[in-house]
Amino acid sequence: MEILERAILEKGKVLNGGVLKVGAFLNNQIDVNIISAMGKDIYEKFKDCGVTKILTVEASGIAIAVITAQFFNCDTVFAKKSKTINVDGELYSAKYFSFTHKNENTLIVPKEYLDKNDTVLIIDDFLAHGEAVNALIDIVKQSGATLAGVSVAIEKGFQGGGDELRKKGVNLYSIAVIDSMENGQVVFRK
Amino acid sequence: MEILERAILEKGKVLNGGVLKVGAFLNNQIDVNIISAMGKDIYEKFKDCGVTKILTVEASGIAIAVITAQFFNCDTVFAKKSKTINVDGELYSAKYFSFTHKNENTLIVPKEYLDKNDTVLIIDDFLAHGEAVNALIDIVKQSGATLAGVSVAIEKGFQGGGDELRKKGVNLYSIAVIDSMENGQVVFRK
After folding, report:
1. Does the distance separating the beta carbons of B59 and A28 come in below 8 Å?
2. pLDDT tens, B113-155?
3. How close, in Å, is residue B167 to chain A by CA atoms?
4. What ipTM, to 2 d.p.?
5. Which residue of B has its CA nearest to A114?
6. Segment A61-65 long-range contacts (CB within 8 Å, at least 24 positions apart)
7. For the segment A67-110, what is each residue's pLDDT rounded down to a tens digit?
């Protein structure tokens, strides 16, 4: 989507280690006009999928998830990150490794907020290796809900998580896909 | 505001230790219709204050902050919680004690997202002892920005943080103020 790609080029910063910093408009300071346009774009892609709930993960997925939920007129649930491995029976939980923070996390969602009657759209800000999104998909499976699909703002295509999901048949829509950031130059997939 | 008070009575749960659980609609599962109504209500109270930026804290303040930002058509910045006491010069930081989690946290905001040209409205989901809000006010002062005011969804009036802010002359608007939760019975301030 042009508005997001332009924001990445104008306001994003490519840092060492394959990190794209978009704190200026997406995940520390949030430009409401950009994420509203993204929410509408996601809605257009999934509006016929019967979505009843949006699932995201704290903290930086919440803004885009809740703005998108306005278009679907549905509730948003966010998974919390917990260091605790043992969680009681009232929670869905899934472990994943964060390449950004170099640690293992457990995502938890109370069972009362997700069940087999739901059709879930997973939303997040970034998709890189796909660890967090796969943990969210695992939680949707545990709940017995239907997975409508996954939508992310920015897919780092060169890290492979998105193409893995597509191979598995997941209905994935990434608003912007970056195929390369070599020498600080962002190249989008066409 | 009637819609929030009704949601608290119908969907909230009073737990031991003065805890009000509103995960069903506010800070784990988010009812977009309720927070949109709240965002509009906050806008009506502060629309003439020249707000240029909304400041909140991760994770549960983000949803209401970003929805409210739509009405003001301004950016939202969220403070991150850091366990690290030493932070470098590119960040504003303020320590506070979390009564909920029984630990000390440091809130951090990159300096590039807040400065003396901003007029800031602080938004959060809960105001109890006021520790987090006071840390956010400290950050606004460090930045040289003007504080337009503070708005929270739910003030636990019996824990005193809100009245302390009012005494200091802070322009505080709490959408619902709870004066007592004894015996599991929520009593709102009139």
Report:
1. no
2. 999 999 999 999 999 999 999 999 999 999 999 999 999 999 9
3. 31
4. 0.95
5. B29
6. A61/A123, A61/A124, A61/A125, A62/B30, A62/B59, A62/B62, A62/B63, A62/B66, A63/A26, A63/A27, A63/A30, A63/A35, A63/B62, A63/B63, A63/B66, A63/B76, A64/A26, A64/A35, A64/A38, A64/A39, A64/A123, A64/A125, A64/A153, A65/A123
7. 999 999 999 999 999 865 555 569 999 999 888 778 888 999 99
